[in-house]
Structures are given as C-alpha cells and as structure tokens.
Amino acid sequence: MSDSTIRDLNHLREMAGREIAASDWLEVTQERINSFAEATEDRQWIHTDPERARKESPYGITIAHGFLTLSLLSPLAAAVRVPGLRMAINYGLERVRFVSAVPAGSRIRARFTLRSVEDSAGGAVKALWAVTVERQGADKPCCVAEWLILYYP
C-alpha cells in the first residue's frame, strides 16, 4: 500500500492538489457480492446468479453492484491516515460515475487525490477527495467519485 500519513490538519491543507495515497488491493468475491445483495435487497441475477450470468451477461460472469464498489471506499480509505482526530465523518458525494464493471473475483484499489480543504461549521475541516477506483488489469477505472469528509480535531 502507498500509505500516506498526514501529520495534522494544517499539513492536510498543504497537501491540497496532490495524490495522497493508493490503497491495497481488495478482492471483490462472489460471497461479498451476495452479502451486499442480501443487505440491500438488490438480488438482480447479474450480481447473484453465476450460471445465468455465464450464459446471458455481456461479461460472462456476475458483477459487483455499483453501490457495493462505492461502499468499499470506506475500507480503501484506510490508505489515508490523519492522526489525532476526534472523528471523521462521511459528508457525502459530489459526483459519482460507475465507469466499468467489477466482475466477481476482481481486485480493486483506490487512489486518493486531495482536491480542496476548507473550514467548516463546528470547528471541522471539510476535505474534498477525488477518488479513482481501479480494477487490476483493466484499462479504465471502475468508479470515480468526489467524496466529502469532515475531520474534527
């Protein structure tokens, strides 16, 4: 993993405009896809029926839900460490695109570029991250997003 520890929130401000980290690779297993399908009640066959997907899907295999890929930003974000915080809160997303599919068994990772940092209410610092989720061996990303995080010192 390309781990980047930010010393503190002032250092975070200095890092704006740079790629900060790339996460470890994470395997998106069929078991993970099935668990997500159950949790979200999105059991569409293209995600959960390997036999049908092999026959009917343009991918020839089941694929991860786009929202599963998006939800994996949280564990992938462990690549960026900001020590000494009271808490960090997911504040939302500005833009999300699911550029290409994530076939079951694929390995993905995320690259984190800090777009901007600004003060926010309650003493928080709001950071806008450009996140690109890559699939190992693929030519284009599977997901791109602009993710807002509130950091509380």
The number of distinct helices, counting runs of at least 4 residues, comes to: 6
Write the element-wise H/E pattern from the N-terminal end onward: EHEEHHHHHEEEEE
Give me the secondary-structure category: alpha+beta
Report the average pLDDT across residues.
94
Largest sheet at a glance? Answer: 6 strands, antiparallel
Q: Count of DSSP E strands?
A: 8
Q: What percentage of residues falls in helices of 4 or more residues?
A: 10-25%
Share of β-strand residues? 35-45%
First-to-last CA distance: 26 Å
> What spatial form do the alpha-carbon principal axes imply?
elongated
Tell me the radius of gyration. 17 Å
What are the segments in which pLDDT stays under 50 over at least 5 consecutive residues?
none
Describe what you observe in this structure.
- With 153 residues, the chain is α+β, with helices and mostly antiparallel strands.
- Helices cover 25% and strands 37% of the residues.
- The strands form 2 sheets. Strands 2, 3, 5, 6, 7 and 8 form a 6-stranded antiparallel beta sheet that branches. It has a two-stranded parallel ribbon with strand order 1-4.
